[in-house]
């Protein structure tokens, strides 16, 4: 599909469905009347932040005149500009000739996030929140790209991956990557609260959430009556 143009709706639909899956988006729009030319993707909660970046990389490498990719969900939008990626990461999209090179670039851009961060579910309040989130989540069909999950945790002998942003959360059972789970609004709010208001001790490290960014640092930990704090 290399050499595609923004006006080719069929080719753009194929690129989007290949990267995020048919369950990952509702429909696309093509901005072709005026420059800059771009692709607008109306996404579902299955399209996590990492998949947005991956799709943008594919579009910029394959679509000659694509200047930006815009993601829309629940009235909010996020835009990834081709020029920003070229400038910040010195990516020459015209020189990319194969999928292996593209995936290598994607891996380099995402490995610095230190994913996944492993929840310590021996902490009772953490276990309770994650247990309820899993129990009340609604199973959805569709294959999820489980590359670079944000969080990982074990519950009752099963390993789960979790992605969360400021709008939604997606849960995947590692042994069943052909489906995903949409968290209830209540459990999504509980997870947001836990991540934004607490500093959690996770596998010997502490993690602090500021906005949508993760900050992890080595520390010694002291346990006081079931509560954890940095030394």
Give structural notes.
The protein has 231 residues and is an alpha+beta fold. It folds into two domains: 9-112, no CATH class; 117-230, no CATH class. 31% of the residues lie in helices and 32% in strands. It is built from six helices and 15 strands. The chain has helices at residues 9-20, 49-62, 82-89, 99-110, 124-136, 185-197, and strands spanning 25-31, 38-43, 68-73, 76-81, 117-118, 138-141, 151-155, 158-164, 169-173, 179-182, 200-202, 205-210, 213-218, 221-224, 227-230. The strands form four sheets. Strands 5-7-8-9-10-6 form a six-stranded mixed β-sheet, covered by helices on one side. α1 packs antiparallel against α2 (49-62), α2 (49-62) packs antiparallel against α4 (99-110) and α5 runs antiparallel to α6 (185-197). The radius of gyration is 19 Å and the shape is elongated. The termini are far apart. 26% of the residues are buried.
Shape: elongated
Count of DSSP strands = 15
Largest sheet: 6 strands, mixed
Poorly predicted regions: 199-231
Strand content: 25-35%
Separation, N- and C-terminal Cα atoms = 55 Å
The ordered string of helix (H) and strand (E) elements is HEEHEEHHEHEEEEEHEEEEE
Q: What structural class is derived from the secondary structure elements? A: alpha+beta
Domain YhfM-like: 99-198
Domain DUF4825: 2-78
InterPro entries: DUF4825, YhfM-like_dom
Write the layout of secondary structure elements.
Elements: H1 9-20, E1 25-31, E2 38-43, H2 49-62, E3 68-73, E4 76-81, H3 82-89, H4 99-110, E5 117-118, H5 124-136, E6 138-141, E7 151-155, E8 158-164, E9 169-173, E10 179-182, H6 185-197, E11 200-202, E12 205-210, E13 213-218, E14 221-224, E15 227-230
């Amino acid at each position: 599909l290399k050499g595609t143009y923004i006006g080719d709706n069929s080719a753009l639909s194929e690129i989007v469905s290949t990267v995020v899956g048919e369950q990952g988006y509702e429909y696309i729009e093509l901005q072709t009347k005026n420059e800059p030319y771009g692709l607008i993707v109306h996404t579902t909660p299955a399209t996590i932040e990492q998949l947005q970046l991956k799709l943008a990389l594919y579009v910029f490498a394959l679509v000659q005149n694509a200047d930006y990719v815009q993601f829309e969900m629940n009235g909010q939008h996020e835009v990834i500009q081709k020029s920003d990626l070229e400038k910040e990461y010195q990516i020459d999209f015209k020189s990319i000739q194969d999928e292996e090179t593209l995936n290598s670039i994607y891996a380099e851009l995402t490995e610095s996030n230190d994913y996944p961060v492993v929840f310590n579910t021996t902490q009772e309040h953490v276990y309770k929140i994650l247990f309820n989130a899993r129990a009340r989540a609604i199973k959805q069909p569709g294959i999820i790209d489980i590359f670079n999950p944000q969080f990982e945790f074990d519950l009752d002998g099963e390993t789960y991956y979790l992605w969360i942003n400021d709008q939604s959360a997606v849960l995947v059972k590692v042994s069943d990557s052909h489906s995903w789970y949409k968290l209830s609004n209540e459990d999504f709010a509980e997870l947001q609260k836990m991540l934004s208001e607490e500093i959690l001790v996770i596998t010997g490290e502490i993690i602090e959430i500021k906005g949508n960014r993760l900050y992890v640092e080595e520390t010694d930990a002291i346990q006081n009556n079931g509560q954890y704090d940095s030394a």
